[in-house]
Amino acid sequence: MDLFSLWEDLVTYIKSNDSEYSEMFELHLYPVSLSGSVLTISTDHTLPKYQVAWLANVYSRKLESYILKTKNQQITIQVDNYRPPKITPNDGPGPVSAHASAKDMEREKARNVVPPAPSPAPFPEGGIPSPFPEGNEPAPVMESKAADPFPEEAAPPDFTNLKPKSADEVALPSIQDVAQGSLFEEPKKPEAKKAKVFQSNPINEEYTFETFVHGGCNDVAYSAALAVAQAAVNPKLTDTNMNPLFIYGPSGLGKTHLLHAICNYIHEYKPELSVLFVSSETFTNELIDAIQRHATNDFRQKYRNPDFLLIDDVQFFGSRDSTKMEIFNTFNELFDKKKNIIMTSDRTPSDIEKLEDRLQSRFSSGLVAPISPPDYEICSIILKNRAEKQGINLPDEVVDYIASHINTNVRELEGAFNSLVMIARIKEKPITLPFAMEALKDKIPLDGGNTLTVDIIIDKVCDRYGVTKEQVLSNARPKKYVVPRQISMYLARNLIPGISFPALRDKFKRKDHTTVVYACERVEKEIKRDQSTKAVIDELTKQLKR
Ligand SMILES: Nc1ncnc2c1ncn2[C@@H]1O[C@H](COP(=O)(O)OP(=O)(O)OP(=O)(O)O)[C@@H](O)[C@H]1O
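Above: inputs. Below: predicted complex with adenosine-5'-triphosphate.
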């Protein structure tokens, strides 16, 4: 395998699988060397460090696993963030390991803040042609061991294998700008932590950026959350395009984890900032309480002053006028004061029917970042991390078995892992594949289980209500069709992990996905209001999950 055939292969892969990254790849990246099992990629100096970190920490892993799968070779990708010239020869960005932790990257940054100065060409003679126009080439980054504050870090990239290659021989892939313009600079931990400023919801210290496993399904949300937290530490990095940050996706995929991670990060690096983290329910309840006690000033004092307001599950915001008005005013005031607002929801702002238009547009005015169900790789890493943390010996075949069957909801994945560990402890048995299959048979049917589909759900509901599928899928308005139609929509949305409203719109042959949103909310309300509806839904759910 040589450098350029590997590179071309990666380019083809990126173009066909992640075409949205193509532009950035083409403009900013090029292969530098393939030395042993290390592929070094360089970025030009215009690529923000934040995106370099994303490339090094998120996307490289995906490329590595692609190489492993297709070429059966364990390659590590290093990203050399090529920066403009430096005044002193003592500083310079070393390669960012594809597996570097956030802390590693931060240390790397510390060596990288020096103004430009004229200096020699970036590559040794006979090396790869510079991607920069002649005369505009940035100078090389000089490393000096004596002055290196982090001598244990990896050596600079190996340029010895470089062969000349003209730019048009290499189609350059690019990485999409997932969190625009966030330059990544060194946060410094304060010497002594000040008093904790968190209010309301307690923060789980385990939920950090380090413990969040990220990849293609969640990297936009992860990167944006990290960027927001980093901007708190270094306000120069603040990107107003990301305020508010709105993270959405189905249940159990780590949205709340990311909110905790932001709080933990700020608390670690900038504890003097005030961070208020609440659920939408807390917000609504406190508002109602404040109105009843004639204490709305206290409420406003609390909610309109924090540097960061994080609100979880905003789809549950109440629909009272007073709540809507208060959210609107709180939002506007924080926004005007350039304070940060981060929200999560199980759907996009425009899909939250109860929200009036002006709130929907406020919530959508920053970055709306999706989280999708995890893929097999992410699930495997999460399982391995859990097992390692608890000192459990989880054989690879068990990891494979669980990750390939439960890979749509991390909460369920964790539940399966916890049950398995618990049963093994109670029975005092080692965890083997047959043991795991038996222990998890409620969660993973031994026959492999039928994958639940919208059609199966509709059939089951039709049986229950004595109507036909055609009637459910028609536009007929009699109640005897509307009820099973709405219940089918509700069950499909809740039992098929990751299914989106637009996908349900198509399955149910509706013109507009808001019909599905409305149906789900309607059924949710009915379940709360009416015990017999709840019983029917519970029964159908049980049958469908069998
Ligand atoms: N990518 C991930 N890496 C590590 N742990 C994760 C990841 N995604 C989710 N988890 C874990 O899964 C569990 C559920 O996550 P979380 O509560 O953040 O989900 P959520 O999207 O907020 O769900 P809901 O919408 O139901 O509130 C948590 O224990 C969380 O730490």
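Strands lie at 29-35, 38-43, 76-81, 95-97, 199-200, 245-248, 275-279, 308-312, 340-345, 367-370.
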